[in-house]
Amino acid sequence: MRARSQHPTRFLPGRILCPEARMMPSRQLLCAAALALSLGSAGAMAQSLADSAARIEQLIESGQGAEAVDAARQFLQQVAERTGFGVANAQLTVGVAEGFGMFEPRADNRFLVDEPIHAYVEVYGFSLSPLSNGANRLLFDVSFTLDSPEGEQLTDGMISMGEVQLDSYREPIDGYFHLTYRVTGAVGAYILRTRVVDRASGETAEFSLPVVFSEPGAATSEK
């Protein structure tokens, strides 16, 4: 029997078109749903990582702190471009994350039936598209599904969580998502699998979180 799942559409304020999904920047970009991103220059790509690291050392030794920090950001941009798009540090949380790494981890993965699920995940290596006004635009498509513990997909397809859009005059390096999932009718152990597509590059990354749903008052030892 297939698990029943549902994700109601609710649009967040502003330009973020991502129902029940919030993505925040690590430092400066404070939107309802935002994302930090790195974008290196062609010149930076021409340098090897070793050359870039040596340049940073030289700047530090010469007392050029601000220049060294800027060079270090370019170094991380090179790394992100070479690794490609990906996700890391996916965790279940208690409520909404307040910033990069600023969240309360959930003590377990057990939820009541129909209880909202909050999750945090960090992202790297994603793309920005330049706009005519000098800003850069980021577009992500987010979807999820439920898998059985054995890996069988239990929904007819990926369930869309909507589109995330961010226009930024900066080129941040790292960032995170906060996502809120709403699943109805599921009881027992499942794998919550989320897919994030960087629309500009077409690159896709996924992460999975095991969850257990139980009726109120029902005890379960599943994890």
* Number of DSSP-assigned strands: 10
Q: Helical amount among residues, as a percent range?
A: 10-25%
Q: Which overall shape is indicated by the principal axes computed on the Cα atoms?
A: elongated
Radius of gyration: 20 Å
**How confident is the prediction overall: mean pLDDT?**
77
Low-confidence residue ranges: 1-46
Order of helices and strands: EHHHEEEEEEEEE
Helix and strand composition category: alpha+beta
- How large a portion of the residues is in β-strands, by DSSP E? 25-35%
Count of individual helical segments: 3
Q: What's the story with the biggest beta sheet? A: 6 strands, mixed
For the record, give the distance between the C-alpha atoms at the N and C termini, rounded to a whole number: 21 Å
Task: Write a concise keyword list for the protein shown above.
about 220 residues, disordered N terminus, alpha+beta, 4-stranded antiparallel β-sheet, 6-stranded mixed β-sheet, about 15% helix, single chain
